[in-house]
Amino acid sequence: MIDNFFKLLGIPSSQLITCANQTLYMVFVSLVLGSLIGIIFAFTLVLTAKGGLKENKFVFNTLSFVINTVRSIPFIILLVFILPVTKAIVGTRIGTTAALVPLTFFIAPYIARLFENSLLEVNKGIIEAAKSMGASTFEIIIHFWIPEAKSSLILATTIATISLLGATAMAGVIGAGGVGDLALTYGYERMNSALMTFTVIVLIIFVQIIQALGNYLARRGRGRR
Questions:
Q1: Could you tell me which of 147, 150, 143, 161 has the C-alpha nearest to residue 213?
Q2: Residues 133, 117: contact at Cβ < 8 Å?
């Protein structure tokens, strides 16, 4: 029965598994890298903003400009534009690993803005109270800011993950593979409606799982079940 199903799709089951693994690999690795860069950028923005703990107009304006510039470039253009950078970093311009570079460039500034909004939601009175108690900037970040913004940060990460999932489909331009590329290459281009429908369902399931998990973790972060 399963064999007949994959005959209908026109692909072997091993190919679908490979594409699913490629998608998960691209999303997970680029999300981790993008989140690390994003959280650094976000804290730099809130700390150096007007009235921040380390107010610095030059740093804030420069970083904000860079983030806005990268975010203004459509991913498909960014993908091609930074091919020389991709080559310099991973040694190749094509493949699943090569796609990690543009995906990280794409998601890092996006996450930075999401995280910045999450951090700005924290009650300023808490930060001021921590500062008045003699806590250092690092201690304020670790023991006050992040715990207070935890739920919002989780939801922001969830939104970013879903955006990355969509971006992986376009990464097929450089031969990155993935479920999205499977739908375009073997579904759309070959007029295989069954495969197109199936891959869309798979992507919908991915999104539903990611959103449900994000909502659950956010509720736990707020102390709710």
A1: 161
A2: no
